Amino acid sequence: MAFLSDTLARVKPSPTIMMTNKTLEMKAAGKDVIGLSAGEPDFDTPENIKRAAIAAIEAGKTKYTAVDGIPELKAAICAKLKRDNNLSYEPAQVTVGTGGKQVLYNALVATLNPGDEVIIPAPYWVSYPDMVLLAGGTPVVVEGPLENGFKITPQALEAAITDKTKWLIFNSPSNPTGAGYTRAELKAITDVLMRHPQVHILSDDMYEHLIYDGFEFCTPAEVEPGLYDRTLTVNGVSKAYAMTGWRIGYAAGPKELIGAMRKVQSQSTSNPCSVSQWAAVEALDGTQDFIAPNNELFRKRRDIVVEMLNAVGGITCPVPDGAFYVYPSIAGLIGKTSAGGTLIDTDEAFATALLEETGTAAVFGAAFGLSPNFRISYATSEANLIEACTRIQTFCKGLT
Ligand SMILES: Cc1ncc(COP(=O)(O)O)c(C=O)c1O
After folding, report:
1. Angle formed by the axes of helices 347-358 and 15-28, nearest 10°
2. pTM (2 decimals)?
3. Pick from 225, 35, 5: which is nearest to 135 by CA?
């Protein structure tokens, strides 16, 4: 009898975490490595949020809390959804978990039966397909090609829907491409969904606040109120508030689903960290003033990276609308050989040779379901980005 489960055998470890670990290992061994693989802001958590956490500790708010969040945080989430998204929810429609990651996982575990299909637009965040597999469902990948700005078309979505489709996972702005759906583009997607009442929408709005050049963020339940009853809107404080380590994510949706997700959480982790929850109340209720200057810094970095990568023959790097990633295509480099003798036949070979020969750590596109590409996180200093892009330019020039 096999010791490990068959389900686990279908799942692969997170390639982004793998790449980050490899970078840390190389750094620990004294190698000069620039890590561009981590999906977190390099800014510190704002002072007011840290203070709120310290105050919570000092006030003894260090005990178990309600399984899916303290009332104060649920109230702050309801206020946020009204303020930013014009969505009305009551606390019983809100759940809080240990990061958006747990919230997404709870939703899938709570709803998927064997054979249920989940449509995942590619390029996708690495965890979606594996979470679906872990929860016993079947991922159905729909490609959003570079020519369509890495977005899926309504026709491609329509063609992928079957009687077994339970969810569409929607993520805009996206990890790994930074591509954002305009309101008109999203409306065309929600129009398709209106024709298929068996499909629910899991909208991952994690990068809502990280947007550039006047891009207008929108979310499915807001764009099509007819989908309110079958949409779970997921968000969190990790990215916009530089709180990745605090582990707070949340979602709002139908009461029955929220109750089922609470049941999953009650038998796994129970409540998310009490102190982090109080910090998240301050993040959502407190000043939002640091978001705009942070975005200005991100935009400058994005422009540097896009320009330096597009200067390389064989690389095409579209300009993202949001998040802090670029997802250049290396179609023009496939088939070449690196100065170190590696044949670049896949994007994985490219990323591995880049790391080994230049100490620049990016994540290969196959991890995100669309190749040949690689993902760079520009959530690091301008100096690091310029050095990294210079190394990429030199590496690519050396390809024969
Ligand atoms: C698209 C997307 N969704 C969700 C998450 C999960 O974030 P967290 O669990 O830190 O809230 C991430 C983190 O990288 C992400 O990129």
Report:
1. 20
2. 0.96
3. 5
